[in-house]
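--- STAGE predict ---
source: upstream dedup step, 1 unique chain passed
mode: sequence only
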Amino acid sequence: MVALYTNRIDMSFTAPPVIENEEIRLTLLVDSDFDALYEVASDEKIWAQHPNKNRWQKPVFRTFFEGALASQCAYKITSLKTGEVMGSTRFYDYDEHKNAIFIGYTFFGTRFWGKGINPIVKALMLNEIFKTVDTVIFQIGAQNIRSRKAIERLGASLLREEEVAYYGEPSRLNAIYSMEKSTWNSLHPIQ
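--- STAGE serialize ---
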């Protein structure tokens, strides 16, 4: 069975236009962000462990970017210290009945790897979204060990593996993780 994710967002959910701390700003994507974001995404190394390894190619990334815009909940990640575009991430597939949302489609330029940026971005997003939902789901390529370890360090629990067909892309095997609001709050109390 293939789970199809279309970036549907229930109209009762509105993504905040900006999420930030003193180091990093997440701003909702706009069409004019394509060139700056593609400059980051065009590095093949970013996608080496990802199920869709050809996202570094401009036409493939264009489809990815169009899905991001369609979601109305995708962010450009920028360093407030340097003004550099660092990558992108998004909320998607909000389910009002389950009081849950997905976080994913995250990538960072390789120069930002190993610097603690991903946990900072995820913490910003989780602190924000847990004002609205009780559960966050993450889909990570089954072979993407680096990302799986990162989400496990934050306290997410592995639920299962399943085939996932993302917006405009073929299905691939993904690991599905969840994080409950109560778990996040107990592991990462807001100071």
